[in-house]
Amino acid sequence: MNLLITNARPYGEGELVDVVVRDGVVTEIGAGLAGARDESVEVLDADGAVLLPGFVDLHTHLREPGGEESETIASGSAAAALGGFTAVFAMPNTDPVADSEVVVEHVRRRGAEVGLVDVHPVGAVTVGLAGEQMAELGTMARSRAEVRMFSDDGKCVNDPVIMRRALEYASALNVVIAQHAEDHRLTVGAQAHEGVVASRLGLAGWPATAEETIVARDCALAREAKAALHVCHVSSARTIDVLRAAKAAGVRVSAEVTPHHLLLTDAALTSYDPVNKVNPPLRTAADTRAMREALAEGVIDVVATDHAPHAAQYKDTEWAAARPGMLGLQTALSIVVHTMVEPGLLDWRGVARVLSERPAEIGGLPDHGRPIAVGEPATFALVDPDGVWTVRGGSLASKAANTPFEGMRLPATVTATILRGRITARDGKVAA
Amino acid sequence: MKHLLSVTDLDAAAATDLLDTSDRLKQALLGREVRKLPTLRGRTVITMFYENSTRTRVSFEVAGKWMSADTVNVSASGSSVSKGESLRDTSLTLSAMGADCVIVRHPASGAAHRMAAWSDRDHEATGTHTSIVNAGDGTHEHPTQALLDAATLRDRLGGIAGRRIAIVGDILHSRVARSNVFLLATLGADVVLVAPPTLLPVGVAEWPCRVSDSLDAELPALDAVMMLRVQAERMHGAFFPSAREYAIGYGLSAERAALLPEHAVVMHPGPMVRGMEIAPSVADSASSAVLAQVRNGVHVRMAVLYHLLAGAPA
């Protein structure tokens, strides 16, 4: 299975090059290699597109098993491939919960069968996400699923003793604990960012302090445990101050921001359309500005989608009854280009860092987020930086259509995605 | 006006227009033996209440009946809702049955907005036309309560612009407070909120009103004081230490009521917790407009139905 990519621009820099791939590995990079092709080689003309390492999403909800009316591993994998992703981390809040080797191995195997993207199951930190008893982290880490990240995402590991023990235990397994930072005692009944908009709309507030206090606590616990802590979906500007201080003090902490927290604010809530309901909630323009700056600075390490499909019956309801979450895989790159590249906060090297290299490092994936070089895996996303498209939820590959970006015209299109030399998506269609 | 979802749907002219209509309807019924106007004959008005309510539901029903509309009352416990039907399906079902107007009370803020959006989408698809009236949505708004309060203030004070009106109590959880602050400000009143800091919303500084933590300091300059019900369950949320301490700080006792100017009006949207936020003697005093509020409620709701339904396409 050999592949020749022609007219590509690695990291959007320098002259156009051709890339020769044999058995999933890059064997040559240079100008004018197109002449060397023979009949058995598949040719992909990049037409000047930017060549980047394939994207890695540390935060995806694939909903299978149990939520197949909203997404399956197959439909979510298709959305991932179309969005330029070559690896995704599937969150464990499924039914049954991925808190045992049986479930995580099933998810890993289904992902491999679909074959469009490497699906890495995230294991639950506690049994049933109940926050009370530690799940069998060691068994899941040593299983065929090779779990490297654990999280109770959707819920916070609220009990400080359980969080402390989980961090200590994880440190010996060389795995990372990803925390959904939300002090549940401060967010009882919460529906929206606690602020001017929610007050006017009569929506119970989700105070930013509920995030900041958990992140501060967890950084202190991770420092003592010498453990790796990952903070999911940072949403509050003041959380960034906590992270900056912890990183300066040498705490092994990393953090992600979602595309929607880079772009959208609670001003979108006035229609009461629950397509804008998400947890943590959309916050203020000052928060989105702080997210962008922190991502450029590196205090926030990565962009992760928190791709959260919900079938219409869970979204087309009154606000309080709607489930939180929004689609993200197919819009992530465009939102990053719109919020970070266009204003000059990131170049394409930076995009590779936040969407591929750092997430692969945090998630412990040795064969993703690699340099574009001879001898490295041919795992890429090709991006047309001049492409423009209009988001239509109904046209996305996910089973659900709950995108908050409906109708927006966004820059940059993913023209092809390549996983170890195999084209998984091309011109908006997934590989057969 | 297609729906009435929030007082911010109304500018000063539209609100005044509604209040004027309410006054005219009140006059039209005055002294009549048969209290019925033929205006909405053949129109169907459905009340859909997902929360317990006596005064608001009955007030809308009486308003509809006095206008000769066919009124139907649906409550959540006796409907398909108890079988798990979604709000959207219930809403569209009532439209399909020919409801010209659905009056909804729901515990979720924004429920009426959602129903209006579904109704508008359905209108595009099928041509059916259903107006939605918000009769209280969660902690968001209760627009007809604010309109009836405005009608009562106009009656008692001869006008609203420039009058100083205090709203006292649990502002945070009160849809009555939200509707009143924004409607009274639109009509030119000088609104002041009095509450412990725990019962004030975070963004209150952006509202068109002033905030005070001393009821005693405000009372002598008020034209009206509106007392809000304090729900006992708030104590469990640590919003204040005890009913006793709340009553001492924020209750309208007879001694406190004596600080009000003679012309000042005492109001309460009901139901009252006597002895908590308001002393029985104050609630029953000549200053109290509590029952006038209820009376005006019927006329204001008649006016709302009239504006929504009379002249609208059949």
Radius of gyration of chain A: 21 Å
Low-confidence stretches of chain A: none
SSE succession of chain B: HEHEHEHEHEHEEHEHHEHH
Residue share in helices of chain A?
25-40%
- State the helicity of chain B in percent bands: 25-40%
What quaternary form is this? heterodimer
Query: Given the C-alpha coordinates, what overall shape of chain B results?
Result: globular
Q: Please identify which CATH superfamily of the largest domain in chain A we are dealing with.
A: Metal-dependent hydrolases
Number of helices of chain B: 11
**Quick check: average pLDDT of chain A?**
97
- Tell me about the largest β-sheet of chain B: 5 strands, parallel
Under the CATH scheme, the architecture of the largest domain in chain A is Alpha-Beta Barrel
Mean of pLDDT of chain B: 93
Secondary structure layout:
The complex is a heterodimer of chains A (432) and B (314).
Chain A lengths: L1 E9 L6 E6 L2 E6 L10 E5 L4 E4 L1 E6 L12 H10 L2 E6 L10 H14 L3 E4 L15 H6 L6 E3 L8 H14 L2 E4 L12 E2 L2 H6 L3 E2 L2 H17 L2 E4 L5 H12 L4 E5 L1 H5 L21 H13 L4 E2 L8 H4 L16 H10 L6 H15 L17 E11 L18 E11 L2 E5 L2 E2 L2
Parallel strand pairs in A: 1-4, 1-5, 6-7, 7-8, 9-10, 10-13, 11-12, 13-14, 14-15
Antiparallel strand pairs in A: 1-2, 2-3, 5-16, 16-17, 17-18, 18-19
Chain B lengths: L11 H18 L14 E6 L5 H12 L3 E6 L11 H10 L4 E6 L4 H16 L4 E7 L5 H15 L6 E5 L6 H12 L3 E5 L15 E3 L2 H4 L5 E4 L15 H8 L3 H4 L7 E3 L12 H4 L6 H20 L5
Parallel strand pairs in B: 1-2, 1-3, 3-4, 5-6, 5-8, 6-7, 8-9
